[in-house]
Write a sequence for this structure.
C-alpha cells in the first residue's frame, strides 16, 4: 500500500508542476494544462478511430517483437554454445547496438515502403537486446548443473529445451519487458517519420503539423498507459507460469 501511495503522490506532484508551468506560459496552446489535455484525451477515447489506430500500431509491435524474440533467442543460444558462431555474429550485434536509431529509420525508409520499414526498424532495435540476454543467461547457468547433465546421455535439443531455456527464462523475461517499452517508442518514431497511415506515429505527426499540442500530450499519455499495461500483463504471465 505504501508503494501505491508514494506512486500516487509522485503523480500528483508531477500534475501540480505541469499545471503551474502551463499557467505561467502566456500562450496556452504551446503548453496545454492537465484539464485541456484531459478533455482531449476523453474525446479520443470516445472516438472509435482511436482504437483502430492503437490496434494497428500494437499489431506492428507484436509482429516485430515476436520475430526479434524468436531470432534473438535462437541465435543467442547458438552464440552461447559456439564460440566460433559468437565471434562471427558479435560484430553485427555491436553495429546494431551502436548505430543511432534515427540513422536506421532513415536508411530503412529509403529502401523500403514505410509500412514495411517499421517492422525492420523495430526488429533491428530489439534483436540485440533479446540476443544478448539469452547468451548471458546461458553462460550464467551453474556449471555444476551442466556437468551433472553431461554425465547422462541427453540429446542437444533436449538439454536446450529442459535446461538452457528454463534457466535462461528470467533473463529473457527481463529483456522482453525492456523491449516492450523500447519497441513501442522506436515503432512510433518510425511511424512518425515515415508517416505510416493509421498509426499512432501518424496521429502525432498530424497533431504536430496542426500545432495541436493537446493531442500530442493526449497520445503520449495513451502510449505510456499502453506500455504499462503490457508490462503488467507480461509480469502476471510470468507469475502464473511459476505459480
Amino acid at each position: 500500500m505504501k508503494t501505491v501511495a508514494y506512486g500516487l503522490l509522485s503523480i500528483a506532484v508531477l500534475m501540480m508542476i505541469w499545471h503551474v508551468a502551463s499557467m505561467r506560459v502566456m500562450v496556452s496552446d504551446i503548453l496545454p494544462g492537465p484539464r485541456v489535455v484531459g478533455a482531449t484525451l476523453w474525446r479520443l477515447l470516445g472516438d472509435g478511430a482511436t482504437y483502430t489506430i492503437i490496434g494497428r500500431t500494437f499489431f506492428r509491435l507484436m509482429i516485430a517483437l515476436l520475430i526479434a524474440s524468436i531470432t534473438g533467442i535462437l541465435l543467442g543460444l547458438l552464440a552461447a554454445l559456439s564460440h566460433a558462431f559468437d565471434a562471427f555474429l558479435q560484430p553485427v550485434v555491436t553495429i546494431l547496438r551502436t548505430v543511432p536509431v534515427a540513422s536506421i529509420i532513415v536508411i530503412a525508409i529509403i529502401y523500403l515502403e514505410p509500412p514495411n520499414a517499421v517492422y525492420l526498424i523495430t526488429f533491428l532495435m530489439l534483436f540485440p537486446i533479446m540476443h544478448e540476454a539469452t547468451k548471458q543467461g546461458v553462460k550464467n547457468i551453474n556449471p555444476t548443473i551442466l556437468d551433472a547433465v553431461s554425465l547422462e546421455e541427453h540429446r542437444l535439443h533436449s538439454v536446450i529445451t529442459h535446461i538452457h531455456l528454463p534457466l535462461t527464462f528470467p533473463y529473457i523475461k527481463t529483456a522482453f519487458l525492456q523491449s516492450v517499452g523500447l519497441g513501442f517508442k522506436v515503432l512510433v518514431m518510425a511511424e512518425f517519420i515515415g508517416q505510416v497511415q493509421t498509426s499512432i506515429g501518424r496521429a502525432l505527426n498530424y497533431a504536430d503539423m496542426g500545432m495541436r499540442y493537446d493531442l500530442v500530450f493526449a497520445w503520449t499519455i495513451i502510449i505510456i498507459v499502453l506500455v504499462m499495461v503490457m508490462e503488467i500483463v507480461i509480469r502476471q504471465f510470468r507469475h502464473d507460469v511459476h505459480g
About this structure: Residues 122 and 183 are 6 Å apart (CA to CA).
